[in-house]
Structures
1.
Amino acid sequence: MTTAAVLGFIIVGTIYAYGLGIFGFIAVAVHGIGGSGTASTGQTFVDLLSEKAILTKAPIRLSIMVSEFIFMLVPTLWLIRRWHTRSVAAYIRLHKTGIKEILLAVSASVLFFPVNAFLSDLLLKGLDFPDFLTRINSEIFTSYNSGEFFWVILVVCVTPAICEETFFRGYVQRTFERTLGAKSIIITGILFGLYHMRPINLVSLVILGMIIGFFFYRSKSILPGAAAHFTNNFIAVLTLYRYSDGRPRVPYMSGQFPAYLVIIGIIGTAAVIVLYYRTTRQNFGQNTARQSETAPEAT
Amino acid sequence: MDSQFLPLKLGDIIDTTFRLIGRTIVRNLIIAVVFMGIPVILVTLASRSFYSQIGSEIDIMSKLSSALLLWAGWILFSIASLLAEISICVVIGGELISRTLTVREAIQELFYDKWLYGIGQALLKGLVLAGGAIAFGIVIAIMGVVAAAGSFGAKAVAGLFIVVAFMVFFSFMIFFLIRWAFSLTAVAVEPLGPVAALKKSWNLVKGNWWRTFGILVLLYILTGFAVGIVSTPITFGGMWHVYKNFFSILGSTGGKLSPGQLAQFQRSFGPEIGISIGVSSILSMLITPVFMVVMYFDLRARHNEFPSEETAAGTEPSPATPA
């Protein structure tokens, strides 16, 4: 099982990484990035970078969304059918769960966001990362009107909630769980952080991955984790929702979070996790009994 | 006497590789660190000295000695990698014939004669390929000189010929590299000298060139991803100082770097490069030799080098799918 999980992670991860790269390159080439590639008179290097970031964000968003479905979701589902069972939905635990668990997962996501942002800010400050680079870097997640906002939600929130959750929790953690039990939460969380290849966000991504993995493990359902993942990304997109002149539409969420909010976030997240544990302790025995009856799995 | 080993499908090669990695990772890591640790440190120190002198006023002899030290460090690193790879191949080869070797036993086997044969086959292979490259370069140079003296039509024809010649040359290089891909493995796993190992590899790949090429490309891509996701944060952490310096300069200048600032940034390189390359190399060393040995055994099985028995006693099981 451990071999299958690691192998599956590497195979799907490689397919996705190369698929996204090739598809993204083709998408940008077809779309065209405009301009001469050199700065015009009076235009600085920063202006040129910003211009290219804006021009390429549409094809890059499309390639991310399409790639996650084609190069991540499809291979994951194929691997499950090929290596484990034809009952794919049962394997990834796609079944209903209590609304309380979903609401708790969403709350944890909301409470953890300031902590997540604080950790990232800490590392960015430590690196003296210039503000203009942060703005250029986040341009792909920034929207300036409602149509673009919903499009970004689809790409950045809905797509990972379906595709990444199916891959990481539905396949990788589920497969690790068969031999490692609860330790699968930690391993999958680390792989989730490493996979994003964003060293600055590594720590916060690993913690977030573990929290989502915890929801998956305790609920024996993929839905709470998917809801938490969607919520985390939605808040991030909301903080980058701007007017056409660049002013944030949600001002109090777009700057640095104050220290008290970070502390509340840590305490609140911990409290929700404890509450989630107690809530699912009652369901846990029922869920595992139901799983063993309804999910025949190949060995 | 080798146990039976059956030809493997692609899925079995990958599965066997991963099972063997899991079984031998500690031993292989010790071997890799023992051999490559000191050269990595040497390269790190030499890089620090070399890069710190970029654009500086230090005399030419100091710069030359830094460059020579760095060059020597890389040579030592290459030899250490070769020795580590042979030792790891010895361990993996042992596993495949149900013989569990300790680190000490693998290193003893290495230094009995394999280290010499390993270096010998690398030199032979390098000489042949370098010789081919030099010969090709001479032909191209002659053509270029002749074309330059000719008419526009002659220049166009010569230009086209040079492009085609480059494509043919690279095709031949890849062909030879794949045919000789297993010469080091042959030295490690069997008692073969350099010439015999090159011949063995040549003959094993014969009739399986495209299959071998495809599988090697796929395995190297998978290895690259696996090594990449682990080494990226380690490298980032190791190069924190470099990144911080770069972003500080970028932030203070609004994205404009003067030549002096660029030189200052380059001078901050050095030890981090050694660390990042060392980490990636050691991680690759845990994977690459393993699948090379598995493929070596697979090719030998395809050439009927193992006794055909009904039961596969003492061999690695080859399930159709991972359990």
2.
Amino acid sequence: MATLSDSTAATNEPSFRFRSLRLTYIKEWGVKSILIACSTLSVFVTLAIVVVLFTEARAFFHADDVYCNATIKDVGVSRKCGQFVGTSTPETAGKEVACTKCGALHEMPAPVTLVGFLTGTKWDPLIGGESDKNFGVWPLITGTMLVSMIAMVLALPLGLITAIYLSEYAHRRVRSIIKPTLEVLAGIPTVVYGFFALTVITPGLKLLNSGFSTYNAMAGGIAVGILCLPIVSSLVEDALQAVPRSLREGAYGLGATKFEVSTKVVVPAALSGVISAFLLAVSRAIGETMIVALAVGSRPQMSFDPRNDMQTMTGWMVQMALGDVSNYDVEYLSMYAVAALLFVITLALTFAGNLVRYRFREEYH
Amino acid sequence: MAGETRAHPLERLAGQLQPRDRKFWDLSFRILCIAVATMSICFLIILLASIFYQGFNSLSWNFLIHYPEPQPGAAGIGPALWGTVWVCTVCAAIALPIGVATAIFLEEFQPVNQWLRRLHTFVQLNITNLAGVPSVVYGILGLTLFVGMGGRFGTAKDPYFSFGVRYYDQFWSAGERVLLVPVADPGSPPTVVEPGMKAINNEGQWVDVNVVKSRRQLPRDKSEREYALVEGRSSGRIEKPSWYFFRLPFGRSILAGALTLMLVILPIVIISTQEALRGVPGSLREAGLGMGATKWQVVRNVTLPAAIPGIMTGSILAMSRAIGEAAPILILAGAIFITSNPSNLMDSFTVMPLQIFDWVGRPQHDFHKLAAAGIILLLGILFLFNSVAVLIRQFTQKQSS
């Protein structure tokens, strides 16, 4: 840039070169616009998730309004009929109804309503007869909750104790062994955990008690628990490290043992971080797909016995994606409805976890 | 304490624990802590040992190169390995620039304008929430948005826009030769055998097709049967893509998979880059600003070079997460049996975790051994990635200290 800057006067400047200020401002503005455009992409992603999931879920709930899509010839041009045939009800499900415009027969699909979806307790979308199909989502929710509860029973206490050990008790050398171990456990792909659950945990459980079937919720729950253990441990440890030393030393000065300091002083002081860690771990466990697809099974039933096989929400989505159901059938659209429900639940949990972490943390000075 | 003192009787009434009991609880908690910490090491050791035990014998050079087969004997993981390489390269090329740019905006360019400040807070909140969304939801988003594109651009067989591909209708002649008829519009109905038609044979030459009226009229002579077809028969459509093939409804292609994986790892890249940028000391920035540099000049010449080790570590960790993700690709690709390496950006593909999932899902025990061998390969690649990240971290810490 050989031009002189606009701002310098012509009288006494030495003969070195300035860059053009105007070009710098243009470049600056250009770069800032590119950065802002990249950032708004993330906003679009959230928007896209919400729009896609809820549009298709809405199509799922309106699938009982049947429109005739037979091809008819209208003044020499063939196009779709498009006539509204009717809304299916529990009485007319499975029966054939003729279109009033072109006479094509349509089998009425199973009726699906939002209330029925959210309160029904039988999930049988793959039964042959249309009048026997049920779309109540509670069996899937029960499966998800059972697997997550088993995982949390394993991960939360163990993660909390590991975090207390790492932050209060452990020697430097022990820390340098355990922390990498936990990082490795967190970094292993979830298919590996699914394989482990199917080939090692299930036979082990079968040895303990012969009531376990090949696919059971307990093996999946244990594997998800091992997966969530490092997450709980690292988040709780961060929270415990943030508690200032003065609190601990005050308690030691009063004669408390290390156990009492840890459980009665440090953990209550870091309680917001601990609760947020729990919420984030639950959200992770609910969204886990590969482990439950491999080890938990594909039979949706409302049962609280971990020895049975059952299906979770994510397992149903995998089954629909792998199956050979046509793209516009009600069963395929149910995948979107279940995904919308899963998204709402995990978003609520993540939001609550972040809210607790940032709003309710205690500032110590 | 000098020794064990007897507690005053009133203390016992007040519910205080004896010093003896407090020591007991302290010791037992310490033992519990050590037991729990070793439990996590035991989990890891059992996990790795069982996988090695099951899969070590199936590892071989043939396993790396061969394609999967219906029988577990000679099956290999070659196409899945190449698919992982393709998808992760494209994903990194897209996700890293966007992620680093977003993080630079969030960290360095604190806006003064009120609307931009609201955008800033909103984007930050958004990213922490997106980091917690399960990856299946991203898979479903990718399925609707990138594969089918909402049905707006046609289907993969009848695309809205494509270049770099030639479409043919394929016939199987009576003499067991392949005859191809070029097709201009992939949406047109299939070609039907008519008298006087020409076709291209395997060597690429145009030949006259010997059309007969019915099967009984097929010539007996072998050389005449080569290009003989019965009138009225229909054909199947194939496509011959070149390496720069691009088609507008992406379909179940590498590009769609890479874009979906980009959505999965974008929050991770952004958050780790933000941490790296925060680690640069403020004095460096202020020195740059004090010398008269604009904000972007400071970022480009001072902050970014100082934060590059942290950014690279974060990116490598995000890529290792992307390599291990199977759920979004599972929803995207469905049930496909891939036997060839991908050759262009729109080709169908599979990735290693998905191939492992496919093998584990089968009942035969030999497939489980193959799956274990695949897991060993996958863990080996991840170990390589993480060692590179650790080496970078150590190398740069040595430089700066």
